[in-house]
Amino acid sequence: MQPLRKKQLLLVGITVAALAPFLNKAFHIDDPLFLWMAQQIAKHPLDPYGFSVNWASFPEPFWAQMQNPPLSSYYIAAVAALVGWSESALHFAFLFWPIMSILGTFALARRFCREPSAAALLTLFTPVFLVSSTNLMCDVMLLAFWVWAIELWLAGLAQDRHRYLLASAILIAAASLTKYFGVALVPLLAAYTLLQIWVERASRALSADVSSGASPELLRETRSNACETHALPRAMGRLAFLLIPLAAVTAYEFWTKSLYGRGLFTAAMFFARGASKTFGQAAPAQIFVGLAFTGGCLFAPLLHIPRKFLFAALGIFATSSLFYFLVPIDPQWALGANVTAVCWEGVLFAGIGLGIVGLAIVDLARNRDDQSLLLFIWLMGTFAFATFFNWSITARTILPMTPVAAILVVRQLELRRWAIVATALVSLLVATADYRQANTAREASRNFAQRFQSEPGKVWFQSHWGFQYYMQQWGATPLNSRDSEITSGDIMTIPANNTLTIAIPRDKVFAPEEVNFATMPFITTMGRGTGASFYSSIRGPIPWAIDRVPPEMYYVARFR
């Protein structure tokens, strides 16, 4: 067997081994939205958003809540037709996307660094990649399309193969219909293509000039004319392939507008802009929360800093200490003594994030070539979008930075095997904490089904995420804050650690019962009162935390 194939198979084996323990993870966070759309697609393939959902405490059209395109749900519907709708079956089917992401990172890293296997492992063993790979949301599917689109585009440019450019354009279209951020590949690859062709033509012109013996003024004029005459038509011919994903997004916009009265691509843009204005903070605080999410999600550079960079690292962490002073900690995010811990964890994560940005800047300054510019634009563009243009800062929007950050670490820092192992252990702990927290919603639902399913009164529940999915499975009813009619003897269940809950007046219910379900006691991605909020900075300024993590609490009350 060829050495290259052995490395690829080894990466596949490591990826499967890392994710196999999480195959039975409960559906979590926005997984239900993708599942419900897949179920709709199974019945009405050409009407993916054509139903209502009670996701925000009252029924509304599904397209008003689902801010993602449907390709991921089409995949779920297709595989569910073969393997069923169970957690294990669907998670097993979704292993394809992290495997393709790691193989794509390996292929891409071969162009940029000497140890592509290390870059692939650093990508795999980040908290954001492992946690995202244990969910059914569209993020890792996007990443797989993203890295392979870049790899095929670079191969097409290097070999002047139009079929590679065509395949890349099709993957960009698929990425854009998986998650809207995928369309950002168009300006990224367009900028790289223009620069790469200019450098190529200028280099050829310079080589010809050196052998011609002409005067410097004539040589400069000849080079300029050669670049303008030949480079621009070549660039336009290659860039024309990028019209394919733009055409796909435009067709999707008109299609959804004809079905639902508005184009869902532009609707998502307006939603994100409005939400970011509502939930965003002052720019300095927003930047440092973005850096904290970047550092906490990617994490690895901290353990690979060489001694010669020690003073630079100290300067970075001194700068990141501004997180402590600039980022306000809402008491609802972190309870009591946890506030100080959240601040210092934020300082640490922001320092790592600032270091990752620094790696991109140093790499560009050192090399000043088209490859470094591609890495720089990829990383900084994703960071800017995640920090300022998404509806909130989430680990899921940091995910596309993972391969480029890993490549930069391999290019710029001294790799240490023990550090890769340490990073893997930390990331696996974070993924285990998220797995355990997701499972508490399924456990709670089963507990309530056993206790109340045969009750004569109606069983209501509040809030959503995985808890809503499992409660609705056995017949419990989501509270409609606008139209629900509750009678004496009905039961209400409310998670303490969830969103969009409505307080029930004490005089309308008997004394509520508290029911607890154990989580990981010392590490969490969204534990109540810990400041950790992997899925949205609205609920906390860091993606995960080491802290005293309380159990997941649910309130159960019977109406008088």
Structure description:
The chain is mainly alpha-helical. The chain has helices at 3-19, 31-43, 62-65, 71-83, 87-94, 96-112, 116-124, 127-133, 139-159, 162-176, 185-212, 216-239, 243-260, 264-279, 283-298, 310-320, 322-326, 338-367, 370-389, 395-398, 402-412, 417-452, 465-473, and strands at 52-54, 59-61, 459-461, 477-478, 491-495, 513-517, 523-524, 545-546, 552-558. The chain is globular, with a radius of gyration of 25 Å. The mean pLDDT is 88.
In short:
The protein contains 23 helices and 9 strands. Helix 16 packs across helix 18.
Q: Find the structural class using helix and strand composition.
A: mainly alpha
Q: Determine the fraction of residues in helical runs and give it as a percent range.
A: 55-70%
What is the typical, i.e. mean, pLDDT? 88
Tell me the strand percentage band.
5-15%
Distance between the termini: 72 Å
Which stretches are low in confidence, meaning pLDDT under 50 for 5 or more residues running? none
Calculate Rg over CA atoms.
25 Å
Biggest pleated sheet: 5 strands, mixed
Number of strands: 9
How would you describe the shape?
globular
Q: What is the tally of helical segments?
A: 23
- Please list the strands of the largest sheet in the order they lie side by side: 4-3-5-9-6
Please render the helix and strand layout as text.
Layout: H1 3-19, H2 31-43, E1 52-54, E2 59-61, H3 62-65, H4 71-83, H5 87-94, H6 96-112, H7 116-124, H8 127-133, H9 139-159, H10 162-176, H11 185-212, H12 216-239, H13 243-260, H14 264-279, H15 283-298, H16 310-320, H17 322-326, H18 338-367, H19 370-389, H20 395-398, H21 402-412, H22 417-452, E3 459-461, H23 465-473, E4 477-478, E5 491-495, E6 513-517, E7 523-524, E8 545-546, E9 552-558
Parallel strand pairs: 3-4, 3-5
Antiparallel strand pairs: 1-2, 5-9, 6-9, 7-8
Helix pairs in contact: 1-6, 2-4, 6-7, 6-9, 7-21, 8-22, 9-10, 10-13, 11-12, 11-19, 15-18, 15-19, 16-18, 18-19, 18-21, 22-23
